[in-house]
Design goal:
The structure holds two protein chains of two kinds.
Chain A (H helix, E strand, L loop, with lengths): L1 E9 L5 E10 L4 E5 L6 H8 L7 E6 L2 E2 L8 H5 L2 E4 L11 H10 L5 H14 L15 H13 L5 E5 L7 H16 L3 E5 L3 H7 L2 E6 L2 E6 L13
Helix pairs in contact in A: 3-4, 3-5, 4-5, 5-6
Chain B lengths: L2 H17 L1 H38 L2 E5 L5 H13 L3 E7 L1 H12 L4 H5 L9 E6 L5 H9 L4 E6 L3 H41 L1 H9 L4 H41 L9 H30 L3
Antiparallel strand pairs in B: 1-3, 1-4, 2-3
The chains are: A alpha/beta, B alpha+beta.
Chain lengths: 232, 295
């Protein structure tokens, strides 16, 4: 689904965030991106939905070049990708319902479809009772679930989550992870950048470790850190 | 674009107008001021042109023949005048008519003419109107050269001065209008920039969920256009009120000055100002969108 070939990203300030990265992500997979801050995790995710364009190399999404895409095609790429942010980015003056409906309105969904689909995703993320509540009345975990609901409401093929549990306590983080797994189980590909060591270690999914803009490890059933020694 | 989307665009535009009400009022006021200047200069230009037209169409060249010119030669000059391609109208005033007129005017004292031995002291003359009043000086010079023409008289300089005046009014109006229009565009750009700033989070989300660029731009553009349009409404109402007063004053104090008060004229002014207002608004918005809305 996603292919990156020899991708380098250097920012105008001289920082090389990614250095000659080649990676392939299968449809339906669940992937953790790990590594210290500044290793290039965020940059890698941004290249997929063309928040950034690579300095060199090629990014393909579903076989189509993302970096050579015309500007007016970019919105249609993004409709296939749901993004979950660490800081939620909910609109404070809109209710939970309206925050999610907003994502449908801007892609010109019908009112009928919005009325049907928004309660459906709220049910799925377990917020069916909070439809008319404003974001500030919700806990951090609940806000993140609204953000996830918004990301999946347009039925994307891929969910990109940049440290979705970064601002949450461990219990809430677990809830969010359960939810992400459920979304993945329904067929959506998930790419998650994270620092949550326990979660990564428990889940045993594919782990791509970045350091200094390079992939230093890519394991099918990996852990947060490289195992030292043969017998652990 | 779908119909409900249009509703969304208008809704967002109006919501934003209401939210930044003070800035909206300031932009509307600037647009109104610049359009007031535009409007009054347009009105001045059109009115002065109208006045020049009515005045100039009354302006004539008087071609005066020698007193003793035989009728045949007078007729020849008359034909020459009538066939001139810059001339629109020629009226012949025979000497007999001039004498009768004068007798009537003098009434009892008509006897004076008897003292002249019943000779007619008046010359034959032609009243000539030019198709374009600007050609009058040239024509007058030409007519002077015709045979047996004694003198040619016309309102030397009057038409030229009027036409010059309307030219300078137009130039001055354009300059002032350009400056004020620029100020209005700038203020609207500032308003829209603040709106964009206030809604940057929303815009960010819209981009991340795949809103098209024009979907994001339209509400801002509409907001600017509405600011311009409302400004033009204010300008038109003030302008028409002032014009009504001015017309009343002119018509009583200076009855010889022609002013236009027909509805078609006023409607035309309204159209020009509304279009200018919307254009100013759209220009201001686009400037800000280009600079601050990185879509």
């Amino acid at each position: 689904m996603i292919q990156m070939h020899k991708v380098t990203k250097a920012y105008p300030n001289g920082v090389t965030a990614l250095d000659d990265v080649t990676v392939r992500i299968q449809k339906g997979s669940f992937i953790f991106l790990v590594g210290p801050s500044g290793a290039g995790k965020s940059t890698l995710t941004k290249l997929i939905f063309r928040e950034e364009v690579p300095t060199r190399g090629q990014v393909l999404f579903n076989g189509k070049s993302v970096n050579r895409m015309r500007a007016r095609e970019v919105p249609f790429l993004r409709r296939q990708i749901g993004v979950v942010f660490q800081d939620f980015r909910l609109l404070p003056h809109k209710t939970v319902f309206d925050n999610i409906a907003f994502a449908m309105k801007v892609v010109e969904a019908s009112v009928k479809k919005i009325r049907y689909r928004v309660p459906e995703v709220l049910e799925m993320v377990g917020l069916a009772t909070k439809v008319n509540v404003y974001p500030h009345q919700l806990s951090g975990g609940e806000q993140q679930r609204v953000c996830i609901a918004r990301a999946i409401v347009n039925e994307p093929l891929l969910i990109i989550a940049d440290e979705p549990t970064g601002n949450l306590d461990p219990d809430m983080a677990r809830e969010i992870m359960t939810l992400m797994l459920e979304i993945n189980r329904r067929g959506t590909t998930v790419v998650m950048a994270t620092h949550a060591r326990e979660i990564v270690d428990v889940m045993r999914r594919r782990v791509i470790a970045l350091e200094g803009g390079r992939i230093v490890r890519d394991e099918e059933h990996g852990s947060y850190e490289q195992k030292r020694g043969p017998a652990r | 674009m779908k119909f409900r989307t249009l509703g969304y665009f208008f809704g967002e535009a109006f919501r934003s107008l209401g939210k930044n009400s003070w800035l909206s009022i300031a932009s509307i006021a600037t647009v109104a001021i610049s359009l007031l200047i535009l409007g009054s200069s347009v009105m001045m230009v059109l009115n002065s042109q109208y006045w020049v037209q009515t005045l100039a169409s009354d302006l004539e060249i008087a071609v005066i023949m020698d007193v003793d010119t035989p009728a045949g030669q007078v007729k020849m000059v008359g034909d020459k005048l009538r066939n001139h391609n810059l001339v629109s109208e020629v009226t012949f005033v025979p000497k007999a008519e001039a004498l009768t007129e004068m007798r009537q005017k003098m009434g009892d004292r008509g006897d004076y003419f008897r003292a002249l031995g019943d000779q007619n002291p008046f010359p034959d003359l032609f009243r000539v109107k030019a198709k374009d009043p600007r050609d009058m000086a040239v024509l007058a010079g030409e007519f002077q050269g015709y045979q047996r023409v004694e003198r040619v008289l016309y309102g030397q300089g009057v038409a030229e001065n009027l036409l010059n005046l309307s030219y300078w009014v137009r130039i001055g109006g354009l300059v002032v209008m350009g400056l004020m229009g620029g100020a209005a565009v700038f203020l609207i750009a500032t308003t829209i920039r603040l709106t964009v700033y206030a809604r940057r989070q929303e815009v960010g989300i819209m981009k991340s969920v795949g809103a098209t660029n024009w979907f994001i731009r339209w509400p801002f553009l509409l907001e600017g256009m509405f600011l311009g349009f409302f400004g033009s409404l204010v300008a038109v109402s003030l302008l028409f009120a002032a014009y009504a007063v001015a017309c009343h004053y002119i018509q009583t104090a200076l009855p010889f000055v022609a002013v236009r008060t027909d509805p078609a004229f006023l409607w035309q002014i309204f159209e020009v100002l509304a279009a200018a207002g919307v254009a100013i608004g759209a220009a201001g918005s686009m400037i800000s969108l280009r600079k601050y809305l990185h879509v």
